[in-house]
Amino acid sequence: MTPAARFGDLGDGTYRNPVLAADWSDPDVCRVGDDFYLTASSFGRAPGLPLLHSRDLVNWTLIGHALDRLEPTEAFTAPRHDCGVWAPSIRYHDERFWIFWGDPDHGIHQINAPSIRGPWSRRHLLKAGKGLIDACPLWDEESGEAFLVHAYARSRAGIKNRLTGHRMSADATELLDEGTLLIDGDRIPGWFTVEGPKLYRRDGWYWILAPAGGVETGWQGAFRSRSFHGPYEERVILEQGATAVNGPHQGGWVDTPAGEDWFLHFQQRGAYGRVVHLQPMRWDAQGWPELGAEDAPGVPVDVHPKPELPAQPVTAPATGDDFPGGRFGRQWQWTANPRDGLATAHGGDGLRLTCVRSADGMRDLRRVPHVLTQRLPLAPSRVEVGLRLDSTAPGARAGLVVLGDAYSWIGLERAADGTAHVVHRFAEGPTADTERAAAHPRPAPDGTARLRIDIHDGARCRFLVDTGDGFRPSGQLFAALPWRWVGALLGLFAAAPDGAVPGGTGPAGTALFTRFRSTELSAQAPVTPVTPA
Fold first, then answer.
1. What is the pTM of this model?
2. Catalytic residue among 23, 26, 290, 405, which?
3. I need a labelling partner for 195 at 20 to 30 A (CA). Which of 90, 142, 162, 396 fits?
């Protein structure tokens, strides 16, 4: 099993990091009884606020989302890939689940529910403002007070490297003061970009666990004070050291029923996004948290004994999908709030997507909301899906895409004479707003194809297609790119040009996707050479 394998559980009582080998950015975690729950940033995708469940902190399943749609709805009718839901915190208090997050363009929000599966309340705007991010609450059982801490995004607020704290009403509907500057990173020698705070109370101390130094090369810090309002002293508790784990960055502390302490955090991995690591945690003689192995404290572990919790089946969030009855699994998210009619239910298996008529959809898939996406796997993987282009509208197209700052897709397109062709197209970085051909079109006699992408180390993607005579490679290798904060995505889409049907309005037909599969490639699997057609 390679370090990038999909499953963190090695099956022998140990685990290998990352335990979540895909882009579960800015994770936070809480425990309720014997169950652990994790949420993560979802940025501009819908549904938002993923909800994951585990019984052992190593094996996780995706059980749903807390946000059906992003609000304000008018702000997310088109993709805003790096905006939306940033760095949420999840807590259980007063027999309810609570999730707080910062939207850098609108402010700090919270939702709550009596069960992890909902129903979740409507979004409540707790603090309006630009650049307010990384919000975390604390209901202090010792004092009976409630508090909130948050950070700042300089791109909107004009400041960063600071953490502000508020007293908060017990029902989390209002803040009770103007806020206090708890931590000013500019006053701490060598510290910069303090962000992502998580707030706790332990042994009479207020604790803020917060990373600094930036997601690529920073470290995890701890701050403590006897008073919520400070002053706080600081310590670095996790850094890269001699390991390959750059960052390591932002996460959350959780304990087990047996009293063990663990810390989940992310590592930035380029096109793969922010993958999640699990660190053992202890408290030293001075009462500070100590992360990592006992014989190598302060640096991330690679392989380590699992938590002392009941054994669980080896699992990871689902990736494959047969689309029963036209429904798609929980792993899929639209690139913005979806409108009605993008996917239609039917009696059989397979995902029937409407060929949405849009000029944008014909020249730049980064700009349309009707791309259905899931996370790019960290493990070298083979992704396959069947496609039948049912639309007869000239110019109608559908395909499988690797979507990021640059993107590439392979699929089918309907010609003016009614025939279907395999097409492979790409768009370069964000300044390029039109697609280019990655390979010459070729006939797809019955309007069907099996599409494949082999994803090799470094997110190098080889596209292949089978129209009945076996898989054949198409075009050159494509190196996936992330957006600024978001890893690259795998996506399915269907589109048609404006005026694709008489009168220029109404549906332009559908495309049917079947048997989506994602399987690991051998670590030794060679990159498929291109054979000229």
1. 0.96
2. 26
3. 142
